[in-house]
Amino acid sequence: MIDVTSPTFWPQLIQVLLEGTWETLYMVGIAMVITTIVGLPLGIVLVGTERGRFLEAPFGSRRLGQAINAVLGFVVNLGRSVPFIVLMIALIPFTRLLLGSFIGTGPAIVPLTIVAIPFFVRVVEIAVREVDPGLFEAAESLGASRWLLVRRVLLPQATPAILLGAATTVTSIINFSAMVGVVGGGGLGNVALTYGMQRYSWLHIVGVVIILFVLVQLIQWAFTLLAKRAGIEPAKRRRVAAAETGVEPVKA
Amino acid sequence: MISIEHVSRRFGDGPDAVVALDDVSIQVARGQIFGVVGQSGAGKSTLLRTVNALERPDSGRVVVDGVEVTALTGQALRTERHRIGMVFQHFNLVGNRTVAQNVELALEATGTAKKDRRPKALEMLDLVGLAHKADDKPAQLSGGQRQRVGIARALASGPDVLLSDEATSALDPETTRQILDLIQRLSRELGLTVLLITHEMDVVKRICDAAALMEDGRVIEQGTLEQLITTPHSRVAAELFPVGEAHGIPGHRIVDVTYAGLSADRPVIAQLSRDFGLDVSILGAALETIGGVQAGRTRLAIPGDETTSRRVIDRLGDHGVTAWEVDPATTGTIATSASASTSASTSTTKAEVPA
Ligand SMILES: Nc1ncnc2c1ncn2[C@@H]1O[C@H](COP(=O)(O)OP(=O)(O)OP(=O)(O)O)[C@@H](O)[C@H]1O
Ligand SMILES: [Mg+2]
């Protein structure tokens, strides 16, 4: 049982929470970095290899484009449809093979990344699909290479939507990171489990909830700010402005 | 300069297939401004897009300045595209990059060194009169200004050919005029060959040297404006000079007279009345400045029979004036638009009236 009058209780509580927060940030941060590095190109390739898109025939082969598209589509859908708890358990042998152990904060990153990638690929896919096809056409007419097209047209245009989607992705990684605590991962999930459930310390639970709430709010706020910085599309900006001022947007 | 040879393109298969281009051949001379007109769905955009290989024809070939574009792929095609600029109806500017950055994209595509890109982009913007907007975002510009950016971007790589797909269709009449004048000026200054698509006859009238009319994927007429004007039953000419319906007058024959250039000044019709002692009445007339040349068309009613009208037409021919007889029966007297226009189109193919 807990004893709030004990002189060691509060310092311990704070230390446990800080450690848990740090572990959570560490797991989620690294998982998100890897997710971005892997998911961003995959999302672009997934849309690009569709019929009539800029990557429909990589290395001049439409067959290859179709194959890449089909395989990617399948893997992403599979990844998205497996429940996290099942994925996490299924990945234990793989994680052990990769890192020698499946217990702890480090190994927890593996399932978190694997679950986040398909999610993020979907985010990128939607963002890329929203880019005006006329822009691809314009870039093509300029004789731009695919790489230039991706860097100078596709990414600038898709970035705001990707950032907004990334906020949702991070939030769900945080979500899943709590679950990882159950199978020996660290972080705030583990704090809630060991102190809250096994030692009945509701104060720990409250602490975890508050920290998670603040974290999610901060992330949402930061990514929204970044997305705005990256430039919302003019049409959307007009809509936003209209919503704020109550004036209908004027057609350009 | 641009040679489109027997190009065909169909979309889809089986009964739903759309033949967008059906054995289309068009020749555009160097330095010419060539307009393609036609109804929506006639295949104009598809045709234009074969010139820079955004669209691949099923058969036929496209040659631009001796290079067979239809045979190019990969880097060779990209390099060729640097020589063919394109502007779009909806401008297609990258919204969250500045005006200068939009132009710089074209320079980056050609491999221009980083430090040279901005000065060159500013030079291009200056050419279209927008250097002062270099650091604005496209959303801060008017439609006409955006199209200027589109033109600057298209010309940044120093192309010989400019393709324009309805570049002025989203603009108001005054802005349209400014953009057309800009295109014309640049074409003169830079020696550009321009292939443009439009559904507005005014565009053709204002800047084109030559034109083609497309219908259902086929080219119905093509030639320089002067040739088209003096071609009997030319539909392009009829649209350039709307003289109205040909109403039949009992005992009269209806003759269309067209003149371009000098002959417009000659009092041909007055002389006609004197020579033949005929009471010629004018049913309609249109006078336009086309390609900087005065040109006109007059619809006459000539009393008498076919022999009289034949003699009149021959005499006009002696004066260097093209004239031909119009059959009032086929051009229709009831001006209900749909039926009138279909019957008019049959008349152009059926009526074999000697010119
Ligand atoms: N990618 C495509 N897939 C299927 N059909 C197409 C495609 N592009 C064009 N078409 C069809 O080909 C025909 C010609 O189209 P095109 O866009 O060339 O016409 P257009 O003359 O430019 O018309 P508009 O004046 O409306 O722009 C149309 O029937 C159109 O539906
Ligand atoms: Mg079109």
From TrEMBL, chain A:
UniProt KW Mitochondrion keyword: no
Keyword annotations of the record: Cell membrane, Membrane, Transmembrane, Transmembrane helix, Transport
Principal localisation: membrane
Localization annotation: Cell membrane
A Pfam family it matches: BPD_transp_1
Membrane topology: Multi-pass membrane protein
Membrane-crossing residue ranges in chain numbering: 25-47, 68-92, 98-121, 202-227
Signal sequence segment: none
Domain of life: Bacteria
Occurrences of domain ABC transmembrane type-1 (ranges): 21-227
Coiled coil: none
Family matches, as InterPro entries: AA_ABC_Transporter_Permease, MetI-like, MetI-like_sf
Entry keyword Transmembrane helix: yes
Family of the protein in this entry: Belongs to the binding-protein-dependent transport system permease family.
Protein name, UniProt field: Methionine ABC transporter permease
Name of encoding gene: metI
UniProtKB/TrEMBL annotation, chain B:
Listed GO MF terms: ATP binding
Region (Disordered): 335-355
UniProt xrefs under InterPro entries: AAA+_ATPase, ABC_transporter-like_ATP-bd, ABC_transporter-like_CS, ACT-like_dom_sf, MetN_ABC, MetN_ABC_transporter-like, NIL_domain, P-loop_NTPase
Cross-referenced SUPFAM superfamilies: ACT-like, P-loop containing nucleoside triphosphate hydrolases
Gene: metN
Name under which the protein is recorded: Methionine import ATP-binding protein MetN
Pfam families: ABC_tran (PF00005), NIL (PF09383)
Species: Agrococcus terreus
Gene3D superfamilies: 3.30.70.260, P-loop containing nucleotide triphosphate hydrolases
Occurrences of domain ABC transporter (ranges): 2-241
Keywords, alphabetical: Amino-acid transport, ATP-binding, Cell membrane, Membrane, Nucleotide-binding, Translocase, Transport
